[in-house]
Amino acid sequence: MTVQTAIAADSRARGPQIDSASLLRGSEYLPATFEERGVAISFTTPKLNQARIRRNERQALELLVPDFADSGATYVMPWAVLPEVISMTLHDRELYKAITAEPALTPWDIRRLQLQVAARGLAGPAAAQASRRALGEEERLRLAANFALIQKVFGFLGFETGGLKAASFLSPETQDHVRRAFHALAREIGASPEQCYAAIAEQSVSLAQVGVPGAEEQGRLRRIVDDMRSFVGSVNGWAITAYTEHKGRAALVARVAEQTVMIADWDLERLDGRIRDIARFVRDWHREAQEVRRLVARLSWLLDGWDHITAAWFCAIDSSEIDTVATLAEIERVLPRVPRKELEAMPQFAESVAGQGRGRRVAALQDWRTRSRDLDMIRRLETVKGATR
Amino acid sequence: MTTPASQLAPSVFRDLGSKLYRLTDAEVLEIAALLQKREHDPQARKGLAILRPRLRLLRLPRGLDARRLFCMPFEMLLSEDQMPTDPIRRIARAAVLPAWTQVSARLPAEVLADAEAAAAEAQSVLDPDLQQPAARLWAAAAAVVADDFDAIAASVGEPQWLRDIGAALVGHRWIAEVRRQLRCEGLPRPPEDQAREIAGMIRNAIDLGEDIGFVTALVAAAHFRSPGSLVGALLDNRVGVTPGPGQAVIRRLCEAVGVDLEREIAGLQASNGADPHAFIATLDSLATGLKGLQGFADKAGDPELKLEVDRVLHAARTAAVEEVLPRMHRTAGDNLDGAVQEALSGESFDTALMVEDSMAALRRARPAAEALGVAPAVDRAVSDLLAAVRARATAEVPGESPSDREARIMALARYVELLEGPDAAQACLDEWLAAAMQAA
User: Fold this and answer.
1) Is A15 contained in some domain?
2) Engineering a disulfide at B182: which of A2, A53, B223, B303 sits with its beta carbon 3.0 to 4.6 angstroms away?
3) Taking CB atoms and an 8 Å limit, are B52 and A232 in contact across chains?
């Protein structure tokens, strides 16, 4: 089956509601939900970079590729035909196979698959090392969150925390100290010490991605929000001396980033608020665990794609003006716009939902307009992969 | 005693990230100064990296004044050298102050005062309120240079510098248009529609005089990675194809580009391919520049220029084939085993990166090498390296674990991808993994 017939067949099968390969004009298209927006994939094939994967109503996988034909439109194509549509890098072929074999569709799962594939070295040695480091970081972040929660328990009970250090967490003295604290907490809230310990351990798994306020090391999602704050300032600052057409693009990018940060801050505040009352947090373990998981999942959907964008921007702004301009155009192409329903839920954004749109991009000076394989661009994307946390 | 940066981390750096845009400029500078004193400390370097976006913004635009305005038409032609040898950046920056001192003393007072006032109030050089006073300043300064050339030239040093300054001041309108159109340096060849616009502007400048047209063309050329690409773009738009002032301007531009290409060849020989990225840029620049020059020599039927082009082409080929390509070939080939070892250990990747850069450069160099007539040398190097990669992928390593074998195959497949593209790499990967499974 050729690509064209596959696309057409898929289009017929799905009916008119979502038309495969349909052109969704940037200015008209704002995803309704995170699921409709899809999960960003850090492909290293330039045309596919930050394309988004999602399920259609028949639960089949499909890929949204922004500006696939330099038309300013987002192409929706069945996942199955992707290798026939475009010649991908070796890294992307392996990533494609990995996602197909384990069709995971949360940002967390896709990230794990991306790290596993990049760790094999197919996106270059820098990306391999960064991926291996990131994979190894998960356990450390869980321990950091666990340790920070235990510190909160100590604080609640009025125990001395001065000598409590993450480095000596597993020492017999510290463990004994912790055991006594959990017995005291159990008495305080009317539960068993084992239940308290299990509650903290389970919450640490969920909170590892975000981190706990006051912890020595913050989770990845909180770090992305911090990077985004710097990103907004940097883009706005750069725009002061930029030419008019770049100013407009920078303003749009900064505005979407700001909206995302504001929503993320709101979620983080709710999450941190739950942890603040540590006694209730442990006592109502099951209900709290559910809410924490929901908030963390929401944050990971909200911030999906932004780690790549901020890394790409900071790589570019340290090089030349021409790279910065090209990167800004690329960022606008893949901008993770906040879904309509999320914006509508925030009173301060409700009005702006209708007005948020993208103009047509001018693709001047972009090598990917040529038909040749853009090795420079691929290597730039690999560098960004190495710099993405 | 100051606290080592490593003892401040990580909470300080976390806060630094989140407060980056809430800190005042003075605070940012103070923290940066503290961290810079401890640059040997990795945590301090991390802190500086966090501050970098703010530090970039603190590189505030230089304060505008009338002297800076005066320089704008010719600032792209300024060189830091005392006696510039660059054919495009050919005016010594040291000439600016004496030229301005002489010119400003002769300017009408109200023109100077208007320019000073507008410059002081302007937010940036793009400020629309600046345009009129600036244009008046340039026109008046051009008149002063023309009237008192000898007197001013005596204090400037080289009369040619002042001739260029004068021509740029007269052609300020078209130079400003060119700069507005092109906007930043390091551009690739202009796209068709932009080339048409630029050609029109240079044609208008030529109408004002040959020198003015030439200086405008130099300013335009200074925006491109390969200044020679402008020659091709101008010829495509029929500037200089018939005898006349246009052809004279392009001829002078070709001479300048020729000198520039020779400088690039000398740079290529000096670097000897140590920086693969610079090698690609130079080769691209040589190919584009020579193509433009050849085009003009053919169209103008200029045998002298043809000879000159052949001479530069020969020098470029010699430098590429005899010196740079073999060195890059050696860098990739000799370090292949070290790079594979790094992939297995996963600890560092300096050698792997060096090998990858050399391979990617060879592959990227192919189109330019073809234009320069040295493609067979590139093909030979690529084919040798591919053979070396294949030999290592199919070799049996005694005592190697299956996971190490897979890592080795992955690293080598990556090199095939860099040298031959993803389809060939995929075929190799499938074949090598199947063989590994069979062996296991």
Assistant:
1) yes
2) B223
3) no
Give the count of domains, chain A. 1
Report the percentage of chain B scoring pLDDT > 70.
90
Which tokens hold the place of B440? Answer: 């296991």
Cα torsion through B337, B339, B341, B346, rounded to 10: -170
Put simply, whether A27 touches B (Cβ < 8 Å) is no
**Cβ of B360 under 8 Å from any chain A Cβ?**
yes
> Does the beta-carbon distance from A90 to B414 stay under 8 Å?
yes
Alpha helix segments (H runs only) across B188-302:
192-208, 210-221, 228-236, 245-271, 276-300
Same domain, B427 and B360: yes
Q: How far apart are CA B96 and CA B399, in angstroms?
A: 70
Q: What is the pLDDT of residue A110?
A: 95
Which of A90, A229, A325 lies at the smallest CB-CB distance from B422? Answer: A90
Determine whether the interchain pair A122/B364 forms a contact, defined as Cβ–Cβ distance below 8 Å.
Answer: no
Instruction: Please name the residues between 97 and 156 in chain B that touch chain A, using a CB distance below 8 Å.
Output: 124, 126
Please tell me the distance in Å from B149's CA to the nearest CA on chain A: 36
pLDDT score, position A52: 95
Closest CB to B352 among A88, A125, A322: A125
Measure in Å the smallest separation between the Cα of B293 and chain A Cα atoms.
23
Residues of B in contact with A243 (CB under 8 A): 126, 183
Per-residue pLDDT of chain A (389 residues), as tens digits, is: 333 433 333 333 333 333 333 333 343 457 889 999 999 999 999 999 999 999 988 889 999 998 887 777 788 899 999 999 899 999 999 999 999 998 778 999 999 999 999 999 999 998 999 999 999 888 888 888 888 888 888 888 877 766 666 666 677 777 888 888 888 888 888 888 888 888 888 888 889 999 888 777 889 999 999 999 989 988 888 887 777 778 888 999 999 999 999 999 999 999 999 888 888 888 888 888 889 999 999 999 999 999 999 999 988 887 777 888 889 999 999 999 888 888 887 776 666 555 444 433 333 333 333 334 566 777 777 877 777 76
What tokens does A220 get? Answer: 């990845």
The answer to whether residues B75 and B205 belong to one domain is: yes
The answer to whether the CB atoms of A87 and B342 lie below 8 A apart is: no
Chain B contact set for A238 (CB, 8 A)? 57
Distance from CA of A204 to the nearest CA of B (A): 20
Q: Tell which residue, A234, A230, A237, A232, has the closest CA to residue A259.
A: A232
B35 and B138 assigned to the same domain: no
Which residues contact residue A177 at a Cβ distance below 8 angstroms, ignoring those fewer than 6 apart? A159, A164
Q: Are residues B340 and B386 in the same domain?
A: yes
Specify whether B20 is located in the same domain as B71. Answer: no
CA A31 to CA A256: how far, in whole Å?
14
Closest chain A residue by Cα to residue B339: A125
Over 80: is that where the pLDDT of B49 sits? no
What is the interface pTM, i.e. ipTM, of the complex? 0.76
pTM score over 0.90:
no
Give how many domains chain B has, as a whole number. Answer: 3
CA distance B160 to B256: 14
Q: Which residues of B55-88 are buried (b: 16+ CB within 10 A; e: fewer)?
A: eebeeeeeebebbbbbbbbbbbbbbeeeebebbb
